[in-house]
Amino acid sequence: MAAAGSLRRAGWGLLRCPPVLRCPAQRAFYASALMRRASDEQKQELPPSSSQQRYESHPPGDRPDQEPQRSHHSYTDQGGEESEDYESEEQLQQRILTAALKFVPAHGWTADAIAEGAKSLGLSVAAAGMFHTDGSELILHFVSQCNSELSNLLEQQQKLVQLGQAEKKKTDQFLRDAVEARLRMLIPYIEKWPQAVSILLLPHNIPASLNLLTSMVDDMWHYAGDQSTDINWYTRRAVLAGIYNTTELVMMQDSSSDFEETWHFLENRIADAMTMGHTAKQVQSTGEALVQGLMGAAVTVKNLAGLNQRR
Amino acid sequence: MTLDNINKPDIDRIIRVDHAGEYGANRIYAGQMAVLGRTTVGPVIQQMWNQEKDHLKKFNELMVTFRVRPTILLPFWNVAGFALGAGTALLGKEGAMACTVAVEESISAHYNNQMRTLMEEDPEKYKELLQIIKKFRDDELEHHDIGLDHDAELAPAYSLLKTAIQIGCKAAIFLSERI
């Protein structure tokens, strides 16, 4: 329960109606997910228990009843300097945002959804005042959560392959499945997703959203088995980010059943990327063969002209 | 020392800059061999080059294990390293040796700094990495001494050349850590 000690902050008693017993362990991971993407230092605060939590995937917003038991442990933590029902501001925010997601299909990515979310937790609707009015934090929280879920999924698949219980997929198939799995997480919110994308493109959100995109793409390539340590590291990630973004755009306008056209589009883009890779390799080896041919010709000419003789 | 318990930002920088350094050193020796490969000093340079290749291989492995991003300046170090090696080699074998002395001195000091940083932080946790860096530092010092043995100090404008190269190395280290 080091998490409890390390994440305690000034309270928000004003905004809370009933006294609440909360366990920070699970929250700690989400509390960190958003902040950590932007700032590396906070990664060091990552409590050891959370490295186990990465392997648990769980749906957002419904962790009701483990708290009362765990809070007893937290009482003895860190000299028991604060009472058990303390949670940090970040943890509270994460809880509210998670709860708010349920209301997004109805209210959009807005302060209204956040207010409804707070209400559903028994907190005052004024809690929505903790966040910006444009819904940025809600969207970033959602994206961060989806990325974590994807990470867990890929990690589990990797374990299965290592245990020999599953076949290792080829790169293009792997990337296709990873992008599809990630995009499918948008399906419940697809109506309001265009609004979210436009908010993520606002200048003050670009660092955070770019960070989330790059770490997602890095994760996908890592689990796909990328081991490049040269400029390919960059080109591969850039290409995959492009594929992901264009497929996301197609998905928002797709009205086919179960988004078949989107997956078809994705398949074609990945095939293009693979072809591009092969073509680049072929060009390089052709170039090398050409240079060798020219060098050979030059040496031959030198020999014929008698310039290569030793005296 | 696992992916989960390290100080990721610091280790990132360390591995990124060391990888770039070994990559650059490889290219410098390649440039020198291109000019001086068929002279008497060729085998000496070849041997030092082989050791640098081993170093690079090790950092490639560490880079993958710790999911470190390579510096985006690698194509630039590719060309600049080769140009430096070939350029100094054109000054003669003493020039090439002077370049070796300058670069290896910079790299050894740099590795020493890194070792100090890691030891201040947690010598136990980073034991493996410390051992690797220590071994590589010893190899680089050996190259430095070989360079001196092969008349590096007789190179034209030795101190000017050495200072210029070392300033370049410092700039390269600074940039590769960050970009």
UniProtKB/TrEMBL annotation, chain B:
The keyword Lipid metabolism does not apply. Fe cation 2 binds at E52, E104, E140, H143. It is an enzyme of class 1 (oxidoreductase). It is a peripheral membrane protein. GO terms for cellular component: extrinsic component of mitochondrial inner membrane; nucleus. GO terms for biological process: determination of adult lifespan; regulation of gene expression; regulation of reactive oxygen species metabolic process; ubiquinone biosynthetic process. This is 5-demethoxyubiquinone hydroxylase, mitochondrial. Keywords: Iron, Membrane, Metal-binding, Mitochondrion, Mitochondrion inner membrane, Monooxygenase, Oxidoreductase, Ubiquinone biosynthesis. Coiled coil: none annotated. It is found in: Mitochondrion inner membrane. It catalyses: a 5-methoxy-2-methyl-3-(all-trans-polyprenyl)benzene-1,4-diol + AH2 + O2 = a 3-demethylubiquinol + A + H2O. Catalyzes the hydroxylation of 2-polyprenyl-3-methyl-6-methoxy-1,4-benzoquinol (DMQH2) during ubiquinone biosynthesis. Has also a structural role in the COQ enzyme complex, stabilizing other COQ polypeptides. Involved in lifespan determination in a ubiquinone-independent manner. The keyword Amino-acid biosynthesis does not apply. Component of a multi-subunit COQ enzyme complex, composed of at least COQ3, COQ4, COQ5, COQ6, COQ7 and COQ9. Interacts with ADCK4 and COQ6. Interacts with COQ9. Binds 2 iron ions per subunit.
